[in-house]
């Protein structure tokens, strides 16, 4: 077992693919990195993975299907609202209620505001909940979400305590799929052994034990979200609303534009429509 950052793993399997020889038998990558790493791992044979595929969540499997079944979900994660039950009693159910809470409790609403992937994971559920694609920076859903961010902006500040489902948007609820996916590099020296390890890691008893010991969310439909009381109740409720991020080789650039747009609207108080149209134009020029 070699603990490395995801970026280091991507570089290693890319280098091994070019070299035509390798040392890594099995790798785990974050779901957002799958599209860029896909050319460097070999597809699984679906017929050989039937027991696992029958048990795994179909949406989670689709996120790893990039020109074939190249990655299998090992552990999952997604977003929910974390709230102060003592102060609110009940969490906001939709955007209107969230805005009302923000106005009633200024300085008590939080987003992950730094320029990193966690901010994109906060932004995309609102874009999707308004009917946006997550790939077009200025479609109707994106514009609706960022206009809402502009309304929230004066009231934002972090203070989490409890979890709840994300507030419902004009087109429903959504949350971002996260987690680790398993892939076998094309030049794995011990492919058969790596495949046996994949079968072991995805077995129901192993997944149930990982959920119990580590609190991981399993990709298997027959392994429930571990009972974490009120702290995890919101995450459990969002399980059916999970969506993968866009599977594009240029996803890091798209993600960065979502982050920069959010900060421009929320922290710099710029016009959301102008910000998103400018971001979309820049993206179109650079594709």
Which helices and strands appear, and what pairs or packs with what?
Elements: H1 6-19, E1 27-30, H2 34-37, E2 41-42, H3 50-55, H4 58-63, E3 72-77, E4 81-83, H5 85-88, H6 95-104, H7 117-129, H8 140-152, E5 162-164, E6 175-176, E7 178-185, H9 191-202, H10 204-214, H11 230-237, E8 242-243, H12 251-266, H13 272-286
Parallel strand pairs: 6-8
Antiparallel strand pairs: 1-7, 2-7, 3-7, 4-5
Helix pairs in contact: 7-8, 7-12, 8-12, 12-13
Average the pLDDT over all residues and give the rounded result.
89
CATH structural fold name of the largest domain: D-Maltodextrin-Binding Protein, domain 2
Q: What is the domain tally?
A: 2
Work out the radius of gyration. Answer: 20 Å
Question: What fraction of residues sit in β-strands?
Answer: 5-15%
- Describe the largest sheet: 4 strands, antiparallel
Helicity range:
40-55%
Overall geometry comes to globular
